[in-house]
Amino acid sequence: ETRESEPTSSSTFNNTWNNLYSTLKSARIIINQCSDGGIDYGNYTTKGMAEVLAAYNCALIADMFGDAPCSQAALVDENGSPVYLNPKMDKQEDIYKQAMQYLDDAIADLQQEDLIDPSSQDLLYQGDAEKWLKFAYALKARYTMHLLQRSTNKDADMEKVLEYVSKSFKNTEEQAAFSVYDVNNINPLYGFFKARAALGASESMRSKLAEYNDPRLSRAFITKLDKEKEGKVQAPGTPDTDVYAPSGTPEQGTSKYGTSLFMYSATAPTLLMSFHELKFLEAEALCRLGRDAKSALKEAVVAGLLNAENSFSISRKELGNTLLNPASAITEEEANSYFDNTVEATYTNEPLKTTMIQKYFALWGASGEATESYNDLRRMTAPTESFIQLQNTKPFPLRCPYGNSDTTTNAEVKAAYGNGQYVYNEKVWWAGGNR
């Protein structure tokens, strides 16, 4: 939030950098073993699953870092040794081409007859090839939208988004929800919050929610710990001038400000791709084509609110009697009423703006969807599409810096990194930049 040196330091995202390539390596090993000549040839569902995850990680590398090693990275020989010790840099455009090819291959493989049942090894869909197929189509919709600024035929690509959406999730039961958390394996946002206690409620988010009288406003925010109240925390929505951290100028310290119930969602699932994101993509495509998006937008808004309530309910249980007078649950009836009485009117006047603001609200939470909010902010750079106004006036990082495990060993990565200041002035390729 204060953005001192972290956005430019190669150590800030080094763990993320390493983990992305480690996961990509695992996916590529599986793909090779399940391909013609491999020891598991014929296991098409397993291969398709790995191809989806390879695409997912390639796209994350490209989205967060821009140009990066990919085609020569995360490859091992038959002995498990790296094929390339210093893989070359690839253009972001080429990484995206590889991600899309992985998805096309997965779509073909996931429709083949399989030799084995991979259900016991699949933590996401328990071996359900049809759900993995829908996940692949959902990612094609997401990535096609990412590439909109580089499209040579935007209307045709919006039609593709609608086609992919039609072949993807029909409800929240089919979304890509990684829901394996328990008391010993906790939601990563909760884990980070418990370890650092350095997160505060956002005044910027509060003001945006207040403008729409959004149901999340009265449920999400809780005040800081109060020794006079025996360490208990106030109910969500309790007025307190000390609860919200000022944008860009917070005092540094732990437990300084209030926070949100999302921070305590110990077992909330991580959504690799949610039903509400898919419906927001559909609504955006319809808006850009000049068509009626109200039905798709309503499904997206309602699903997003109910997903937030799922996290809130977990947090209320986690906090137990330390939470004073917790707010009531968001019901499906209230979610529908919110759309009908508030969102619909703003949609009628400003359909695309309303869609993107509501998506911004829906991707806020404990479900790991902040990367897509970041991607949306960066791809909507035209003056007419600056729908989300950030109150922090400090320089906004346009990408993440490369990890220091490669800035210190790979000459091409080191040269591209320089002193790290490029993160403030060089947009990624799909947002109109050069790399």
What would you say this structure looks like, in words?
This protein is mainly α and 435 residues long. The protein is built from 15 helices and eight strands. It has helices at residues 14-33, 44-65, 92-109, 129-146, 154-166, 188-196, 203-212, 217-220, 275-288, 294-319, 332-349, 351-362, 370-379, 404-407, 411-417, and strands at 68-69, 89-90, 176-178, 201-202, 221-222, 244-245, 259-260, 270-273. The longest helix is centred in the C-terminal third of the chain and has 26 residues, at 294-319. The chain is globular, with a radius of gyration of 22 Å. The two termini are 25 Å apart.
Number of helices: 15
Order of helices and strands: HHEEHHHEHEHHEEEEHHHHHHH
Quaternary structure of the protein: single chain
Strand order of the largest sheet: 1-2
Question: Any chance you could write out the topology, listing elements then pairs?
Answer:
Layout lengths: L13 H20 L10 H22 L2 E2 L19 E2 L1 H18 L19 H18 L7 H13 L9 E3 L9 H9 L4 E2 H10 L4 H4 E2 L21 E2 L13 E2 L9 E4 L1 H14 L5 H26 L12 H18 L1 H12 L7 H10 L24 H4 L3 H7 L18
Parallel strand pairs: 4-6
Antiparallel strand pairs: 1-2, 3-8, 5-7
Helix pairs in contact: 1-2, 2-3, 2-4, 3-4, 4-5, 5-9, 9-10, 9-12, 10-11, 10-12, 11-12
